[in-house]
Write a structure and sequence with these properties.
Elements: E1 5-10, E2 17-20, E3 36-39, E4 46-48, E5 53-56, E6 68-76, E7 82-92, E8 100-101, E9 107-111, E10 119-122, E11 125-126, E12 138-141, E13 148-150, E14 156-159, E15 175-183, E16 191-201, H1 243-248
Parallel strand pairs: 1-7, 9-16
Antiparallel strand pairs: 2-5, 3-6, 4-5, 6-7, 8-11, 10-14, 12-15, 13-14, 15-16
Length: 257
């Protein structure tokens, strides 16, 4: 009978033929008397025909922990005499699992005007197949943008270009959305994608400005106070700087009044 053997099958394959066990009876030199084969004890994952053919009866998933099985095969002759051997069935891992993102945060709040190279996020992922493969994950940003770059080996996102909250499209919508891609090998393999967003917060980095610097206004000297004399277009609050002006005028609560 075959001495103990190591057998290998790939995970994910359908139930199928695995191996033919062979034995012979020394007392039956012509091999006319059939021998019968059994699994001891019976298995939920394998079956054996009476003539020694081993089959798998389930589809194996390496990542679920089913990666090795020890089977005892017993053979009997017509007189009830038995012999046994051991088969070690090993499940071979393949790259069939997509990477999983493990980053807890997908929305980030950052101030404007951060310098290039400033780290603003760290994207992390894991490969369920990585326990058996010498592999590494590669990160990239698929969204076209000029503000951020990502380290393809670590997943660290850094500022690549000045972010001005008061200019361009950010003035109306200060949200930057990106798609991050992670792959378990440069070509082919498995990949996954995740959406992240950055909310750019405004900071007080621009001086107050007036859209007009000289104003002239007249009214009757008999007009009863208080009344609104003038509305000055300005982007920020105003102050009266002249002592004489403060004696005659006061700024109202509305913008530029």
């Amino acid at each position: 009978m075959d001495v103990g053997l190591d057998l290998y099958i790939v995970e994910g394959i359908k139930p199928r033929f695995i191996y033919q066990v062979e034995a012979f009876d020394p007392e039956d030199t012509r091999r006319n008397i059939p021998l019968r084969y059994f699994l001891i004890p019976p298995s939920n994952n394998f079956s054996m025909s009476a003539n020694g053919i081993l089959f798998s009866t389930t589809e194996f998933d390496f990542e679920e922990g089913h990666n090795s099985y020890r089977l005892i095969v017993e053979v009997r002759d017509s007189q009830g005499l038995t012999a046994s051997t051991t088969l070690q069935v090993n499940i071979v891992n393949i790259n069939d699992e997509i990477p999983r993102f493990t980053s807890p945060t997908r929305e980030f709040v950052i101030p404007e005007e951060l310098g290039p190279g400033t780290i603003v996020a760290n994207i992390t992922a894991e490969d369920p197949d990585g326990q058996s493969f010498t592999s590494f994950l590669l990160y990239s940003i698929t969204t076209l943008n000029s503000y951020f770059m990502i380290n393809q080996l670590t997943g660290t996102i850094q500022v690549a270009h000045r972010i001005d909250r008061d200019a361009g499209e950010l003035r109306q919508n200060p949200v930057i959305s990106l798609e991050v891609l992670v792959k378990d090998r440069p070509i082919g393999g498995q990949e996954n994608r995740m959406q992240i967003t950055f909310l750019v917060k405004d900071i007080n980095d621009n001086p107050a400005t007036c859209t007009k610097f000289t104003f002239r206004y007249s009214h009757p000297e008999t007009r009863v106070r208080p009344f609104t004399s003038l509305v000055v277009p300005a982007l920020w609050p105003l102050w009266l700087l002249s002592g004489e002006a403060e004696a005659l005028w006061a700024l109202g609560q509305g913008p530029g009044k």
